[in-house]
């Protein structure tokens, strides 16, 4: 669902560090902006970026799934209970919705929407390995980068093993639908092999990594090249400038 | 000077200080040689490999005396990383040794080269070349987690080949693979040997190993017991009745020589073709039929009851893959072996036997109970199923407690449980280790612990999934006795296996699956007699059966004894 979608759009060609910088920068900006219009505009712009990247539907759909329940909750709650409520907007039976609350609810919603869209665009348009290489190029330790990559595969692998363990234990008569004490035992019967198995495979894996020269010092290189172009630098500096401007506007003026 | 020199080496792991894994071992290995290593479980084979790669003493700690020299370097003074440029290592588990950080096969093959800091173009060229060498160039964009065991193991080989080390060490590279995977990996190994690489390969599979290697070593209790030309070593081991899996063809030829039926000077055969060549020139005074006739009913029949019934069973995985496509049969008694290539539906079939999977169409009856209406825990009183990987289940602190887990779950009384635990441990050769931690045992023993815990449930039906995988000769012998005992008690034993020799020796009935359907279902003699049909599901009849066919014998043979009865009747 959150997998990389291959492509060669301008968004795909950006350096992953640039995409992360923009995502972080936009997050700061939308939390500084005082009313819903700014974040709403940025959200629309981001959908435009998703369209350029070739997956607008996917971003829109996932963003909707992730944020719509939140929209309903935050607008309802803030609309009724926001402390600064003064102007009634709508009365439904005994309940009054206030303009200030609804506006504030929308502000919060659009902020979250911007963050979600920015992250989705980054994830969909960035090959995970390229992300890792880009960060190593910027000075991240290769070991940390490895942990990041390995964690992507760790979860599905653990799920697969957990299923195998449940099956093996059930085949030995373990009852998953029994009293509390039995269930506690069942948990042990699952967790211990899961951990022990993970330790066994870690031993093999760490030896295999050693044998592939993982811990050796000196120069490294990468199969894939992740260029950092002038465009990337321009975008990153512009983003930084925008953040500084907005911050100055909000704090000083 | 030889490429590898080991002098008076003694090593004990810090976890087992009083039991040296290797004792005063000396040997040297020349550049370009292919050394096969075999021996019983826990004999010290892996320790030998780890020493050469420097994993001992740098990764596994313990008491170390003596000297190991690889390409003129003392391994104690060289790091694993530095040695890795000289020594490549392939491990037993095909999946654990992948880096887990690559999204394509090509990236995986390039990993070591990236760490070496080669130029980008050089990385790509060398990684692609090594993938071509193992026949995986078409899979280079595939995700490593979507590979079969054999492909995964070949990828591990490719990523080592890319480094271009002097020596390749492969520690049981095929024990977890299906026959197709075994062939694939051994083909690559042979190819590497012809390219002049130095190879050290540990395996129990002497049918594949002996013919390819130019030197065979048997390690026994930390010492080199035999070391020399493979045929001579096998001959000595066979004459000493040493428990390794001597290829049947060699054993047959040895016995015929002893009986004076063939001259003793030409080299012993190691392949079916060589044996057929040797035997084609001599006459056949005896007949296999007499023996075959006396063997059709191997086990005394108890009253016939339909223990397991499949009625037009279909099973589709949620992903849409149809794993079982219309299987109707009933299993009553004796030992039934299920064979077929990976993906033919064997494991899916086995999981239907105790309700772990329920048919998407049709139904399965376990001793009259429809599996759709019972929980797995309830069906476990009728059917005990032992899975392949022991590490998916062992969790108690002693072997005895672990074996007790099954009987406790199915509500056996304390007396009954105690009796069954003792019985099962005895059958699986665990009577000496009841207080040990299961995880301190080697893989073959761990696997027998898991099997014992299922046996101890005393269920009328026992299902064993790939029980002989990774076992040494003694372990396979124990499993054979186990099956015999259980069948004698009137139980139905279902064995899912790639091991056709085991099936030929112990099965009363063999079912070959192919693409989710029953391809063949008959007594072993009939099934293994149909070589062409079996080839569709990548099952090769036992060596002696193929030998009989090549010699043009009418009767299908299942054991060396039958063949000997034809050529050298008493």
Note the main attributes of this structure:
heterodimer; A: mainly alpha; B: 570 residues; alpha/beta; six-stranded mixed β-sheet; 23 helices
Question: Considering DSSP H and I runs of 4 or more, what fraction of the residues of chain B is helical?
Answer: 25-40%
Rounded to an integer, what's the Rg of chain B over CA atoms?
25 Å
**Major sheet strand order of chain B:** 6-7-8-3-9-10
Ends apart, CA distance between termini of chain B: 52 Å
Helical run tally of chain B: 23
Low-confidence stretches of chain A: none
Put simply, the count of helices of chain A is: 9
Q: Helical proportion of chain A?
A: over 70%
Number of strands of chain A: 2
> What number is the mean pLDDT of chain A?
90
Given the helix and strand composition of chain B, which structural class is it? Answer: alpha/beta
Helix/strand/pairing category of chain A? mainly alpha
Question: Which strand order spans the largest sheet of chain A, edge to edge or round the barrel?
Answer: 1-2
Oligomeric state as shown: heterodimer
Shape of chain A: flat
Overall geometry of chain B comes to globular
Strand content of chain A: under 5%
Task: Please outline the major beta sheet of chain A.
Answer: 2 strands, antiparallel
Detail the poorly predicted runs of chain B.
none
* Proportion of strand residues of chain B: 15-25%
What does this structure look like?
The complex is a heterodimer of chains A (253) and B (570). Chain A is mainly alpha-helical. Helix content of chain A is 73%, strand content 4%. In chain A, a hairpin with a 2-residue loop joins strand 1 (88-92) and strand 2. The longest helix of chain A has 32 residues, at 180-211. Chain B is an alpha/beta fold. Chain B has 23 helices and 20 strands. In chain B, the strands form four sheets. Chain B has a six-stranded mixed β-sheet, sandwiched between helices. Chain B has a six-stranded mixed β-sheet with strand order 16-17-18-13-19-20, sandwiched between helices. Chain B starts with a strand and ends with a helix. The mean pLDDT of chain B is 91. Chains A and B meet through helix 6, helix 7 and helix 8 of A and helix 3, strand 6, helix 4, helix 5 and helix 6 of B.
